[in-house]
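Per your request, structure below.
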């Protein structure tokens, strides 16, 4: 079966990434990796697009959108923090790994929370879970469940 006139191009592939650094890396990698993967097709149908910046990785949360992200402050005006749910240290007596209370992250309040809007797509492909996914899931579970509760 021959398909004529059908082409695949990196412009057609979109991404959503919450981490700003990862979004930049993904933009670079995504363009060159997708181009490499479809290079035979692309070479037959279009000019070399490897050096183009496609602007198709969006820095955003894939599930929720909000108007403002505000750092929570205590009564004295100091930023509220909590354990980062990742960093551990050796307990001086038991030698076991315990939470490192000095490893902190800011607590945020989100305003005008809504379901994120996605661009129209024929297919959705997620990246595989990483080792740290379980750790981050635990650290985000409370905050995300509070935000999802607002959408009901």
């Amino acid at each position: 079966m021959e398909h004529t006139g059908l082409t695949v191009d990196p412009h057609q592939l979109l991404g959503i990434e919450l981490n700003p650094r990862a979004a930049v890396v993904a933009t670079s990698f995504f363009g060159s990796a997708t181009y490499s993967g479809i290079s035979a097709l692309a070479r037959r149908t279009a000019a070399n697009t490897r050096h183009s910046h496609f602007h198709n990785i969006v820095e955003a949360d894939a599930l929720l959108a909000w108007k403002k992200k505000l750092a929570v402050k205590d009564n004295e005006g100091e930023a509220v923090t909590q354990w980062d749910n990742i960093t551990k240290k050796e307990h001086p007596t038991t030698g076991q790994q315990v939470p490192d209370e000095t490893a902190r992250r800011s607590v945020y309040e989100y305003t005008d929370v809504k379901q994120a809007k996605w661009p129209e797509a024929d297919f959705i492909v997620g990246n595989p879970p990483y080792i740290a996914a379980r750790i981050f899931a635990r650290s985000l579970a409370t905050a995300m469940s509070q935000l999802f509760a607002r959408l009901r």
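The longest strand covers residues 68-71.

Regards,
D.
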